[in-house]
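Write out the 3D structure for:
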Amino acid sequence: MDQIIVQILNGLDKGSAYALIALGLTLIFGTLGVVNFAHGALFMMGAFCAVVLSRILNLSHEVTVPGETDFLGNPATKDVPYVYDWFGEAAGASIIDWAVPLAILFSIPIMVALGFAMERGLIKHFYKRPHADQILVTFGLAIVLGEVIKYYFGANPIQTPAPEALSGRVDFGVWLGYGPNAIVYPMWRLVYFFFSAAIIAGVFAFLQFTTFGMVVRAGMADRETVGLLGIDIDKRFTFMFGLAAAVAGLAGVMYAPIVSPAYTMGMDWLVLSFVVVVVGGMGSLPGAVLAGFMLGIIESFASLPAVVDLLPGINQIIIYLVAIAILLTRPRGLMGRKGVMED
């Protein structure tokens, strides 16, 4: 039972990332009809927003240590972060420690601006082009963004630690009556799950309960009719592209302590995120979330040592096998609209 609980937690953790990325992808496809192969790169850019803010907060200057000398007899020096000068040593150290959560605020305007620039500068020219053209141009953009990150940050993964207060483990064994240390789980992964759940709930609430969201949903269902009512639906859809970019970026920011950011990060998640979208149903936001968590849990159980010993490599392909099975029986996906991907 303890292994089952741990695997469910692992599945919810990974499923949270799948669901967030797939949610942004579905927002773009549902509003603009664009197959955005650069969405994984937006996830990567969010992770590097955390890296950038961490480096900014660690910028330092050299000061002389009174009364101390080095081995040559010269006055000893040390590097002191500027935030220590501005906020005091204790507050400055706390700010540096909480760099990843603070990167949430840092990344939102950057990711929204990047989304607007991508949509207005490039993708808008491909709205009426075949999906193959959209895939090629957005895939090329993903490669460019990856190479830019590689140029400035190098090819090696960059460790971005979680705050010390959230880097421990939660002892579920005590809560569930199994005894101490029977079921322990990293605290930051739980934080990531609850953060993802809050973002997903926020996006659904925005679309469901605000006038702006209602117009967007109407435009997703019948764009021409909404345009005939005198509503500039294109501007609203551009905003949704920026929102989708922000969602992907936030997913990347909070995932940085779990998997150290690297320039290959976007490509690693690209194919999996599209599998999630297709399984959930192209254009279906609830389907994307459902498929994300479902596939995350399935992949987690497929990674059990007993399963891998019985079927070596199954944990690497189980998501694709499930996708094949679902699409063979239900081409539109779990919650896709009738006619989508059924031609």
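The mean pLDDT is 85.
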